[in-house]
Amino acid sequence: MAKKLYVGGLPYSTTDDELKSHFAQAGVVTSATIIMDKMSGRSKGFGFVEMSNDEEAQSAISMFNGKDFGGRNLTVNEARPMEERPQRSNDSGGYNRGRRDY
Description:
By secondary structure, this protein is an alpha+beta fold. It is about 20% helix and about 30% strand. A four-stranded antiparallel beta sheet has the order 2-3-1-6.
């Protein structure tokens, strides 16, 4: 069964393909995704790699956690399920977003 890994500390210039090829040293990578900021379109410096099985995932953690990648030390561990977050309302929190209601 595939195992998803969290990868933090990535250089902001890292691409999905670079991440995938780096982790392929530990085994078969089924997916590799860099998380991008919605507003700026730039990398947030972390991503997720899905390895094809548990043994390859453990191998990747052992090989890459705390190791240098592009001048930065990686944090690699098993990804946790995404937590439920409260839904945002359309309330602007006092900021009037350019409306002129005066």
